[in-house]
């Protein structure tokens, strides 16, 4: 039986609250002479437990606001929407940058103008603060400086290489997951067609944002999501090595 992420978060959150209450009565008093950090955490214990699994996938998808042929006459998002290019051609609108975990759950998202490079959001630590472990992306995320920056933040960026690049050794398990990173494209397809985050009859920016966020919430509340079966991937890797 599939358990909803919201239900999991609620149960974990209740556990964390009760755990803290019980532990408070069994802890030794702190030494007042020792200084301790009092900075508030950016994430609660329950958020950390129910979000990133250590295996994440990143991708971007175009969110069109009108047909490319009508870009010059479009008025609703004038000065906001821009022209960009994706794998299927030019479009006018915005880009949705998504990070999901291996269970198909959305960990982080960001909306940018269409011309923004896919690597730019990752350069901001606020965008990847919930991520740790391995992050899989396509060739559009290749960047040595970005790799180094993320590595310092405990994130290992893994991408395919271009034809003019030298090959490097990669763990077989990572290679198999990299081949299956297209799962995020299935997520994008569900957001577009089932959750309908894209349409061309918006009348204001607030309507656009509300529709987009509602679609993301609807997806996260779905009982079934496209997911990687890591147990099967591990067995496949073992068989190939053997």
Series of secondary-structure elements, N-terminal to C-terminal: HHEEEEEHEHHHH
How big a fraction of the residues is strand?
Answer: 15-25%
Average pLDDT figure: 82
Assign the CATH superfamily. Ribonuclease H-like superfamily/Ribonuclease H
Helicity level: 25-40%
Tally the beta strands.
Answer: 6
Structural class: alpha/beta
Shape: globular
Q: What is the CATH C-level name?
A: Alpha Beta
Secondary-structure arrangement, i.e. CATH architecture: 2-Layer Sandwich
N-to-C span? 34 Å
- How many individual domains? 1
Largest sheet composition: 6 strands, mixed
CATH topology assignment? Nucleotidyltransferase, domain 5
How large is the radius of gyration?
A: 21 Å
Uncertain parts? none
> How many helix segments?
7
Write the topology of this structure:
Elements lengths: L4 H20 L20 H6 L4 E12 L15 E5 L2 E13 L4 E8 L19 E5 L6 H9 L2 E5 L12 H8 L3 H11 L11 H16 L9 H12 L1
Parallel strand pairs: 1-5, 5-6
Antiparallel strand pairs: 1-3, 2-3, 3-4
Q: Please, could you describe this protein's structure?
A:
By secondary structure, the chain is α/β, with parallel strands linked by helices. The chain has one domain (53-241): Ribonuclease H-like superfamily/Ribonuclease H (Nucleotidyltransferase, domain 5). The chain is built from seven helices and six strands. It has helices at 5-24, 45-50, 144-152, 172-179, 183-193, 205-220, 230-241; strands spanning 55-66, 82-86, 89-101, 106-113, 133-137, 155-159. Strands 1, 2, 3, 4, 5 and 6 form a six-stranded mixed β-sheet that branches. Helix 4 (172-179) packs across helix 7 (230-241). The longest helix is centred in the first third of the chain and has 20 residues, at 5-24. The two termini are 34 Å apart. 20% of the residues are buried. The mean pLDDT is 82.
């Amino acid at each position: 039986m599939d358990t909803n992420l919201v239900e999991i978060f609620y149960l974990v959150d209740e556990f964390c609250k009760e755990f803290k209450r019980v532990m408070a009565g069994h802890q030794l008093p702190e030494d007042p002479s020792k200084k301790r950090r009092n900075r508030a955490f950016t994430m609660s214990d329950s958020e950390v437990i129910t979000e990133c699994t250590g295996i994440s996938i990143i991708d971007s998808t175009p969110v069109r606001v009108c047909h490319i042929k009508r870009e010059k006459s479009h008025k609703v998002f004038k000065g906001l929407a821009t022209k960009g290019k994706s794998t299927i051609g030019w479009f006018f609108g915005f880009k949705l940058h998504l990070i999901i975990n291996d269970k198909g759950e959305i960990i982080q998202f960001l909306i940018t103008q269409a011309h923004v490079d896919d690597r730019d959001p990752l350069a901001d630590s606020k965008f990847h603060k919930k991520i740790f472990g391995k992050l899989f992306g396509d060739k559009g995320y290749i960047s040595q400086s970005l790799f180094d920056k993320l590595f310092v933040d405990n994130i290992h960026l893994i991408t395919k290489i271009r034809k003019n690049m030298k090959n490097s050794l990669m763990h077989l398990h990572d290679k198999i997951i990299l081949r299956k990173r297209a799962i995020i494209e299935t997520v994008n397809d569900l957001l577009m067609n089932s959750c309908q985050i894209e349409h061309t009859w918006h009348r204001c920016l607030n309507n656009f944002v509300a529709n987009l966020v509602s679609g993301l919430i609807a997806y996260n509340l779905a009982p079934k999501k496209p997911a990687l079966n890591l147990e099967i991937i591990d067995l496949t890797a073992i068989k190939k090595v053997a």
